[in-house]
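Hey all, quick one. A colleague (J.T.) asked me to put the guanosine-5'-triphosphate job into the tracker so the inputs and the structure tokens live in one place instead of scattered across chat threads. No bug as far as I know, just bookkeeping. Sequence used:
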Amino acid sequence: MRWLFLTDIVSDILAGDRRAVARLMSMTENQALPARKALAELHPYTGKAHIIGVTGPPGSGKSTLVDKLTLEFRRMGKKVGIIAVDPTSPFTGGALLGDRIRMNDVALDKGVFIRSMGTRGHLGGLAATTGDHVKILDAFGKDVILVETVGAGQSEVEVVRTAHTTVIVEVPGLGDDIQAIKAGILEIGDVFVVNKADMGGADETARELDTMLDMNPENSGWRPPIVQAVAKSGEGVEEVSHAVLAHMEHLKETGTLHKLVRERVKESLMDIIKDNIYSYIMDKNREERLDQIVDKIINSELDPYTAAEEFLRPLRE
Ligand SMILES: Nc1nc2c(ncn2[C@@H]2O[C@H](COP(=O)(O)OP(=O)(O)OP(=O)(O)O)[C@@H](O)[C@H]2O)c(=O)[nH]1
Ligand SMILES: [Mg+2]
């Protein structure tokens, strides 16, 4: 029964069924075992999408920019997926975008898929869930996948790290805070957007960013461009889209993409292995054996290092 159901959801997704995509996404959020099997079946169909992370401080205009970028990519004929990791409010921008597209062209309706998710309640961790959603949209045939997240905590930064290209959305007038804010962000940003340029002070912020990028050692020969934009009106968004695509070209031309993908795959594999080992250790069926070993350590029959080796021996065989 389960097998039939699984084959259904996978083939439905591959056939372009949006509800199947949403269903599998919910399943992965709950870490349902069948979800893992479905993801395994989808794996051969992944690896084609350009994954773009969009991050920056709260309210800097990330959702607005993601909407406008989506229109830009649609104009280029690309299919777009949007994942919004939203710690607070629902993804209002996305809903607006959906309406707009449906009003303009029914055919476009199929070209965009939007998923919004809260930061709480992800059994396998937020970064893992986002990674799964990206995979699903990739297999679903999206050419571009935009992942929006607030650039505040570590987990959000990790989410963006699954991207090929990271766009940092700043606003003018950060003043003295700029040093502190930029510390961690300079290294992960591939394209910098100074948004809300209509509010003044954008030139100065762009200059400050530029100076800081000068001091930041480049490691892959890519100098992150700084683009001033007014996401609300769409001004500068075309330039942002070109910068993002140019970055992907750079990754391909220099062979960095291959390296990047390899690193990511290795990292996520190691996470999964660690999870498995953790589950092995915490398995209730082994609790008794663990307690016996503890007794032996207390009675000086065994030292903790030898005991640990012994406990893990079945894993080494
Ligand atoms: N003046 C001005 N306002 C803008 C611009 N872009 C976005 N906004 C406004 O800024 C507010 C926040 O925009 P969002 O796109 O929701 O920002 P966000 O970064 O996604 O916000 P969070 O996801 O809540 O962190 C909205 O009221 C937008 O209309 C812009 O270029 N200029
Ligand atoms: Mg937002």
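Adding what we noticed when we looked at it: The pocket of guanosine-5'-triphosphate (ligand 1) is lined by residues 58-64, 89, 93, 150, 195-196, 198-199, 230-232 (CB under 6 Å). The radius of gyration is 23 Å.
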